[in-house]
Specification:
six-stranded mixed sheet; 3 domains; Cytidine Deaminase, domain 2; 545 residues; single chain
């Protein structure tokens, strides 16, 4: 009996070559619509599917292959006499190969089309045929990926397509259709926490290893909403590693929290500031130029500047040791002069919206440096963390502050408020427990990842004192060389004891911004009043684990 193949593809890559081989090997090729036309244009004989079903396409092409003559031909078990008898009684023939790829719902869901237009790209017949063929993979070869055509042809030429390869092809069907269905579900439901959590993710690349060299890893991106990392372009350097991608994600989120001019993205929490402190909205944004250095998934420097050179100098000065081997992110185009400074360091990655050609020329001299062009700010509104046997899902941390309560007798100096808001944005990206000490719109001391808050505060205050002393001896661009201590301390969460307030006062801090809400708030408030500090409660915690 003559073998029969059903070919119906949206993406035509390689299909003419596959069809030409099958035709030459004596197979009958059945096809539909655009695929049939394409094959005929390539001088390959085709039987239209309506000749098999005895029924014309209808409903504007919505119904073509949804017919017993198709699905019985696919699903019939060749080793079951009753199945083969039914085919014979009905005048149906077997279909021995199904090659289908699906309407481009992934792309169209993000194309800005109307609901009615997008729904038309939900494929019905394609997934139905694929699932039928995959269920009966022992008898039917099922293809969804052009990369598998060549191996299929080799097997057919050799006289046998192995059972193991057929099984893998069937597995790829359900891998594809589950992602396809997940994308449709997410598009139609528009729910943050549906009854069943399904994400449509596509493998972007295999990774050499994971967090450590003995762990395997891969990188997946959303099919329907690729986000900032999916839009990034690597201009040079080695392949990104697992740790690189995690650090890159954090660095880009942190720098974009202060606005991304190239994407017209406002600073994070600007609506909160405008609501509570409208007179400080512009000051809170500061200059749009931000520079962030990240090491081991936490910032080791973060600053605003009048230009990128100043922002980078302040970021570098915050921790000139930890930045070695780290990631440097800028929310503006990297100029040649700044690239020269970066060239003095060993960095893993530099990421920015764009680069001057002179900057790229300098970076090319460092072949292992990964240079990433990032045109888009982060857009994912949820975050996921894997746990054993499950997944934690939460909304992204986009709120800056809920309130602005001055809880002490002293009020913040108006000149300190921009630094307070800068500090609260910065500290939300530092691992908890986290403290950031701020001067001149720059983190001059960062303490993070500590198991108690006083240790984080002591680290940040000690580092701040050393930097300010160094700036007094040798000018650091953008940091006032007056030797005066930093005036602002920001905390990601409340103070359970008065010790942080007392340590801050001893270091010369004049204003504290924190969430408030501890049962012992009064102890910290009393300490601040006794020591002459101003303190503001924001009502918004910024834990980061």
């Amino acid at each position: 009996m003559k073998k029969r193949a059903l070919l119906s593809v949206f993406y035509k890559d390689g299909i003419a070559e596959l069809a030409a081989y099958l035709n030459g090997a004596g197979w009958e090729i059945v096809s539909t619509g655009g695929t049939a036309k394409y094959l005929q244009e390539n001088t390959i004989p085709v039987t239209d599917v309506s000749a098999i079903t005895g029924f014309p396409e209808c409903l504007d092409g919505r119904v073509k292959t949804l017919h017993p003559a198709i699905h019985a031909g696919i699903l019939a078990r060749r080793d079951t006499a009753s199945h083969m008898g039914t085919l014979a009684a009905q005048g149906f023939s077997t279909i021995d190969l199904v090659c289908v790829n699906l309407y481009p719902f992934f792309e169209k869901a993000e194309a800005g089309l109307s609901l009615e237009e997008t729904v038309e790209f939900i494929d019905i017949g394609g997934p139905a045929m694929l699932r039928s063929a995959a269920k009966n993979f022992r008898d039917v070869i099922v293809l969804t990926d052009a990369a598998d055509y060549a191996e299929t042809i080799r097997g057919l030429r050799a006289g046998s397509v192995s059972a193991e390869f057929r099984k893998r092809l069937a597995g790829k069907v359900f891998n594809l259709t589950s992602a396809y269905d997940a994308a449709i579900s997410r598009y139609l439901l528009e729910e943050d926490y549906p009854a069943y959590w399904s994400r449509s993710l596509k493998k972007a690349q295999g990774l050499r290893y994971g967090e450590n060299s003995h762990q395997s890893a891969a990188f997946y991106i959303n099919t329907g909403r690729p986000g900032a990392l999916g839009a990034m372009e690597q201009l040079q350097g080695k392949e990104l590693s697992y740790n690189n991608i995690r650090d890159l994600d954090l660095a880009w989120k942190a720098v974009c929290a202060f606005g991304l001019p190239a994407d017209n993205t406002p600073p994070q929490g600007e609506e909160d500031v405008a609501r509570l402190l409208p007179e400080y909205t512009v000051a809170a944004s500061g200059t749009p130029v931000c520079c962030v250095a990240v090491k081991h998934n936490t910032p080791c420097g973060i600053s605003l500047g009048r230009d990128l050179g100043e922002a980078y100098a302040k970021t570098f000065a915050c921790d000139p040791v930890s930045i070695f081997g780290g990631i440097l992110a800028s929310n503006v185009r990297i100029d040649t002069a700044t690239a020269e400074k970066l060239g003095e360091l060993f960095l893993e990655i530099v990421v920015a919206p764009d680069f001057e050609e002179g900057a790229l020329e300098l970076f090319r001299q460092k072949k292992n440096l990964r240079v990433m062009r990032a045109p888009r700010a982060p857009r994912e509104h949820q975050e996921c963390v894997s746990v054993d046997g499950g997944l934690l899902v939460q909304s992204a941390n986009r709120k800056l502050l809920e309130k602005w309560d001055v809880v002490t007798k002293a009020a913040p100096d108006s000149a300190d408020i921009p630094d307070m808001l800068f500090g609260m944005r910065a500290v939300s990206y530092v691992k908890s427990n986290a403290i950031v000490v701020v001067k001149d719109r720059a983190a001059v001391g960062i303490g993070g990842g500590e198991t108690n808050r006083i240790w984080a505060a002591e680290l940040a205050l000690n580092r701040s004192a050393r930097l300010i002393a160094a700036a007094a001896e040798k000018a650091v661009p953008g940091i006032t060389p007056d030797g005066a201590p930093a005036r602002v301390l920001a905390s990601d969460a409340f103070f359970p004891f008065p010790d942080v307030a007392e340590a801050a006062a001893c270091a010369g801090v004049k204003t504290i911004i924190q969430v408030g809400g501890s049962n012992n708030d009064n102890l910290s408030i009393e300490a601040c009043d006794r020591l002459g500090l101003a303190m503001v409660f924001t009502g918004t915690r910024h834990f980061k684990h």
